[in-house]
Structures are given as C-alpha cells and as structure tokens.
C-alpha cells in the first residue's frame, strides 16, 4: 500500500468545524452531512474540512487528543512499556500532518504537538522494528501485536513479507531431501 | 462610471459568471491579480488570465475572447483611453477597470452601462463636470431649423414685419453660434488641462485587498500582496512620498488587526505561519540578502549621496564605514554571516552616521514578512525580485512565460523562484550602477534646453536589460538623481530627463522614456505622454505608443533627430 492511500483512508475520519456559511443538510453516498449554520460546530469528514478551510469557509477545531498534556502522557507511557500503548486515534500520524499543514493557525502550540507526535511515532516504529527483528531471528511461527495503526503496519509490511518469503525459500533449499519428496 | 459599492456592483455580479482577466505587466498589477485570484479560488469562479503588454496585445486578446466572455476585468490598463472606441465591443460586454493610471478618460467616467471603474473616488481625480464637456447638439440644430423654417414660412407675411422678424432670428442664431464657439473653446481648454499631466493613483492591489476585507475574506497572504503593490509604486517612483506614507498607515492598521487576531500570550502561533511586521528599516536595497557593502554601493540613495562614481566618493564611503566602526571584512561578507553583535544595533548605528554625512532619510517605513526560521523578506526585496523576473532577458522566453514566473514567485511555496529573482535583481542593480557611473563620468547627459537627454549606445554592457520599461525607469531615476548631485549648473537641476535605449537592433528601434524633474516635493506628474504624441504627429516620425504608460514609446532610430527637435520646440 502507498502511504498516500493510507492518508486517503484517514481523511474519512470525522473532525469538528465551525463554518461561517449556512447550508441545508446534504445527502452524500457515504452519509448525511450538516446542516451548516454560521458559528455552530458540526462534525464533518476531514476531506471536507480541509477543502472548506482552504476556501476560508470554516475554522477547524483540533480533536481532543491533539493537546500537549495528553500527548506528553502518551509519550511517557510509550517509552516505559515494551508493548504498544493504545492511542486515541487510529490515524494519529496522518491527521496531525494534514491538520498542521493546512490549519496550523487554528491549532494552539502547533510546533510542540508536531514534535510530540513525531516522538511517539519514532518510539512505536522502533518497537515494531525490534519485534520484527526478533521474530525473524528466533524463527517464530506466529506473533501478535496489539494497538498498531495502519500507517505503522504499512511501513514494515513489504519488508517483513518479502524477507519472510526469502527465508522460506532459503530454508527449503537447505533441506534438499525434504523438498524432493514433493 | 465609478463603482460605489465594490462588493455589490462588482464581486456579486461576476461571482456566478465566467470572467476574463487582462493584467498589465507591472508588480502592482501582479499583486492585485493574486488577490483577485485567491478570492476567485475561494468561490470557485471560472476565469481566464491573459497578460497584456500593451494596447495592441489588449486588442488582440479582446478579439480572441469576446465571443466567450461577457465580463472583463482589466487590471492596471484601460482607464486612460476611450476604451469603447479602442476595442469596439458588443452592447452587452461589461468592463471592470481597476487601474492606477490617471487621468481617467472622460468617456470612461461618464459611460453608465458598459464601463465600471473600480477606483476610489477620494483620490484627487478632478474630473470635469458633465455639462462642461458634453452637450446636447440637437437644441442648436432645432433652433436653426426653426429659424430657417420661419424664414421660409414668413415669406407670405408683409415685408416690414418679416424683416424685423428675420433680424431677430438672425441675431439669435449668431448669438447661439458665438456661445457655442465659446463653449467649445472652454471645453478644449478644460480637457487639455485635465489630460495634460499623467500620474498614478491608489494601488490596484490595495483596492482589491479592501474588497476582500469588506467581504471578510482577507488573509495575511492578501495583505502581504497589497503591501508589495504599494511598495512597488514607491520603488518605481510612481507616487509622491506623502501618498506612500498615507497608504502605509492604512496598511499598518490592517497589519495590527491581523496580528492581534491570532496571537496571545499562551497560544502562540506556529513558526511556519506568516507574520507581517511594520519596520522602520534602512533604504539599502536587498541588504539582507547581499553584503552590506554591495548594498550601499548599489542603492541609489547612498550612491548618489556619496557620489560613488568618483574617487572622492569611494574615500567618503570608507570614512563612513570607519565612522560606524564596522570592519571591512565584516561588511563585505554576506549579511547573514555577519557578527551578531554588529547586526543587533545596525539600523541605529547606520542612521546616526548617516546623519553626519547629510543623509537624513536613510530609514523608511516599510513592512517585513517572516515565515519559518529561515525566511525573512522586506517588501522592497520582493518588489525587486519580481520586477527582475518579469523583465528577464537572460533566456529567450516569451513575456507571457516571464509573467507567469513572476506571478509564481509571489506565493510562499515558490521560494526558490523568489531567490532566483533576488539574484537577477542583484545583477540588474549592479548593471544600473555601472551604467550610471559611466554616463556621469563620460558626460553622456546633454542639456537640450527644456530637458536633459541621454542616449545609451548599442555597445554599452548590459544594454539588453534596459530595453524593458521598468528597468529603464529605474535607470532614469537613478541617473537623474546622480546628475543632480554631480552638476553645478543650477538651471539643470529643475529639468526633466528623456532617455533613449536600443530596443531591437534588427528593426532599428529605440525605446524612449521621459521622467519629470526630481525634487523633494514633486507630485510625480508627467507631461511627456502628450508631448511625445504631439511631437510624433508634427514630424510624422514612426512611433509606437503601445505601452499603458504614455510616457514610454518606441521610435525608429532614424527619426530620432527630428523627433527631438520637435520636442525642443514644443517644450520651450
């Protein structure tokens, strides 16, 4: 999968905006949206929120988890434990990137949030690499990892699968007798 | 006619239509175009952007687009000529003109249906009143007709009565004709006074920004573009200093409004957001992207005060640097690499020393923009970069390509283009400085009586740069200032300057430009537009009055002599 595809899937997440125009309820295939009234918050998918923001038709309210204190707690927990901690949103990395690139003026302390999310990401990906490494070196048959997000899985997917395939081919070549039985 | 409510009469009309945008090649127009484009993007208005370099381009572009579009927006072109007669449009075409050229043609002002002027009426326009210029011609004809009718009818009446009646009628007719001749003479005089001097009004970018503000859709990007538009008018000497200061004060109010809106103590903005600050900064061109030494040598203000084309001048510059206590090694380095201790109080130190060397106005009010950690630009930096990109002669590209590149460099996401523009601007300024130095040292400026004249020969280095109007204007102003500083002849100090530079060697044309005399309180009113027209007519020289600025024309090299003679007789 492309990281761009994962970002596309992330844009379906809902986020709260405060529009400055009014519009009746709109009926889309994916669901109903609205009605929009100036000054009243409404939940919309991220793709619509970004489009409206770029046309200066709304103000984006940052999600509750996008707060320096909460993110600091998550980061500390992540660093303490060996397993993955549950995080508030399955698409935290993509949402942070999208919202901070397009709506940084609506998000307080945007620079610190960017640093904190990057720290959390680095810790989790490091843990993932460690566990993939130990999986291959100890030649385990199966493993279970909880609380991973799609973006993190995506970083390791192609590498892990290809290396496991090669390992299988190498192992089957090492035991010529058994393979001849097929 | 003048538009009173720009939102209702202009924006709400075009927001649901397809619009053709004709933009002239100067930085103020580019900025106004950017503001209008971002408004159109917000509301998803379909538009076509056409850069037009002169009247012929405007005519061709109009021919191409008149079938498909009903609404045309003209930026910095079209106000000073009778547009309906030049373009011959259909009845239903509507033109919205946002132009800084003054005086506005009277037909454009008094046409109620097809021409809408997006111009602030508090600019001192001085448009003559309707009755002074237009008059119903039918009354006169009817009166005459009655008289002649009476004469023929009255043939049956007794002769005595008829003779008296005839005399009265005749007297009335003579009276009317005399009144009419007087009215026409007065009309000619009024129009002559009105159209004699050409000058510039409020920046188009500022007008567009105020439209955005009225609709509450103004952003910092748009504010920055309107700052660049106003600074462009000041850099290219189109508006007097007082008007610049007033416009800057207006912009300063908008800047503080934007700054207070987003920032407060606890939730400070991300460093990547754009911040505009009001600065009382030095008048040294591009000094933050160059070394301080180069900047002092190539800015017209400092170079003319020190007279840097002479050896004495160089010595004075060294004294100035020594007076400030700046070591030469530091001053010749790139500004970003200078010592922090020197950079901290640089402006105050320079101002103090400048006062000792009789440079009282080394600091000027302007704005700077900051975004990210690396990027800091003054408004005049961006103006010079964009102008250099717009008139880039290095590669063989069409003027439309250069226009698009210059338009791009104004967005925040195209910083490499902006830096490229700054490099080109540095080359241009160095070329200007060297040309000025050589002109002064070889006495190329001749006094022709009512004006000064300078002709750039073909072999002059970098002469290709000066075949473009903006670069040639900068050279002219710089040269005039330098000449004033270097000459002792008091009479020459109040003369205007005409400059000719080769335009196209194969066709044998030169570009001729005239600027008004240089003075502290000059109101920048330029009479050369009309003078050039009259001189060309009287000598039937082959000229092309294609530029929107009427003081810039193209002329065949062979006709130069008789054209100048005609000008001399006209102006003395």
From TrEMBL, chain A:
Highest rank taxon of the organism = Eukaryota
All copies of domain GINS subunit, residue ranges: 65-170
Q: Which InterPro entries match?
A: GINS_A, GINS_bundle-like_dom_sf, GINS_Psf2, PSF2_N
The GO cellular component terms are:
CMG complex; GINS complex
Q: Assign the protein's first listed, main location to one coarse class.
A: nucleus
Task: Respond yes or no to whether keyword Nucleus is given for this record.
Answer: yes
Gene Ontology annotations of biological process type:
DNA replication; double-strand break repair via break-induced replication
| Pfam families tied to this protein | PSF2_N (PF25005), Sld5 (PF05916)
Keywords for this protein: DNA replication, Nucleus
Task: State its location(s).
Answer: Nucleus
> Residue ranges of the DNA replication complex GINS protein PSF2 N-terminal domain?
2-61
Q: Has UniProt tagged this entry with the keyword Nucleus? A: yes
Q: Which family does it belong to?
A: Belongs to the GINS2/PSF2 family.
Q: Describe its assembly.
A: Component of the GINS complex.
What role does this protein play? Required for correct functioning of the GINS complex, a complex that plays an essential role in the initiation of DNA replication, and progression of DNA replication forks. GINS complex is a core component of CDC45-MCM-GINS (CMG) helicase, the molecular machine that unwinds template DNA during replication, and around which the replisome is built.
What is the name of the protein in this document? Answer: DNA replication complex GINS protein PSF2
Question: What's the source species for this entry?
Answer: Carassius auratus (Goldfish)
From TrEMBL, chain B:
Q: Provide the protein's localization.
A: Nucleus
Renumbered to this chain, the Acidic residues biased-composition regions fall at 134-145
Name a GO CC annotation attached to this entry. Answer: DNA replication preinitiation complex
Protein name as annotated = Cell division control protein 45 homolog
UniProt lists the family membership as follows: Belongs to the CDC45 family.
Concerning InterPro entries, the annotation shows: CDC45
Query: Quick one: a GO biological-process term for this protein?
Result: cell division
Q: Which organism is it from?
A: Carassius auratus (Goldfish)
User: Could you tell me which residues belong to the region Disordered?
Assistant: 130-168
- Drop me one GO molecular function for this one: single-stranded DNA binding
Q: Does the keyword Nucleus apply?
A: yes
- Main localization (coarse): nucleus
Q: Which residues form the signal peptide?
A: none
Pfam families to which the protein is assigned, alphabetical? CDC45
Q: Which UniProt keywords apply?
A: Cell cycle, Cell division, DNA replication, Nucleus
